[in-house]
């Protein structure tokens, strides 16, 4: 699936920068173009892989290039004022070749939280392509204002994108680790999972063709209908000796030996269970999923048909959904088998309720409860639960 990436704010820009770095390191090819937007000049200068001409400072007259602090309304106003300027940043990107846009932002800060919904809405108005959101939820250790901003931003963004993928920093922090020191690792975990998903179906080896191809339409159909999505991933490193009938040399055609079918099948089914029951990008009850997409990657000889089909059937039982898509993503130069599962339209999300309660307390203690009413917070929770009033 070919994407145009748009990073908004400090977190969004860093994640897009990491996407570009990872694509080059792994020789993948699914990013059609990338732009980073910010109200802080210093944050744009920190980026290494987004081309300089695609680092767009906006709101310079009012923000003076120093950012908006945690003021989401200020950021939204600046984005509205400079909306045409933001869109013009895409003029030299071949958007006609892209399958979708991905708007990336941290939902706790100021610029990303406020401007991401504005940009998503503008993209939707101009282009006839899906506009997806990728939002990062703040950790519990971060200030209350981040939870407050996340609640308000979530409600707005989920209504302006075709689907919102979420990553919860709190879930991925190690014991005793602070967010500030973990950003690089957390971004790496997020980017690796999404890259496997979006790069599936992009042919990198002309001599290897998937038996069940995952193209952009499979991802689009899984994400259709709006709401919130999460991703699970697990992998198994393959043996490097010939005792199991496999060696790394096989990857490059130096041996015709095939792996044991039962072992190949078990590796896939075990990875599928770990991907589903392990840490998701956003913890949730997967049985609340409306749809799912299962991507199995690895050397062609290890992609057991039985293992792939059994995994798909098992996930169908776990989600209680009949709309489970899947396929294989053969990678001749890989030394592992991996399973990535996209759970779309999830509704049972305890983390959302935690943020809602914390945001309400923060609003009450700061005297802003009139601005962020309990009714509005209930709407926030309900929007993720039943999918009502979401963009279709």
Automatic annotation (TrEMBL):
PROSITE patterns: TUBULIN. It is found in: Cytoplasm. Keywords: Cell cycle, Cell division, Cell shape, Cytoplasm, GTP-binding, Nucleotide-binding, Plasmid. GO terms for biological process: cell division; microtubule-based process; regulation of cell shape. InterPro entries: CetZ (IPR032907), CetZ_C (IPR048737), FtsZ/CetZ (IPR045061), Tubulin/FtsZ-like_C (IPR037103), Tubulin/FtsZ_GTPase_sf (IPR036525), Tubulin_CS (IPR017975), Tubulin_FtsZ_GTPase (IPR003008). Residues 2-205 form the Tubulin/FtsZ GTPase domain. SMART domains: Tubulin. It holds the Pfam family Tubulin. GO terms for molecular function: GTP binding; GTPase activity. Residues 360-392 are annotated as: Disordered. One of its GO terms (cellular component) is cell division site. Its main location: cytoplasm. Residues 367-381 have a biased composition (Acidic residues). GTP binds at residues 10-14, 110-112, 142, 169, 187. Gene3D superfamilies: Tubulin/FtsZ, C-terminal domain, Tubulin/FtsZ, GTPase domain. Involved in cell shape control. Belongs to the CetZ family. This is Tubulin-like protein CetZ. The gene is cetZ.
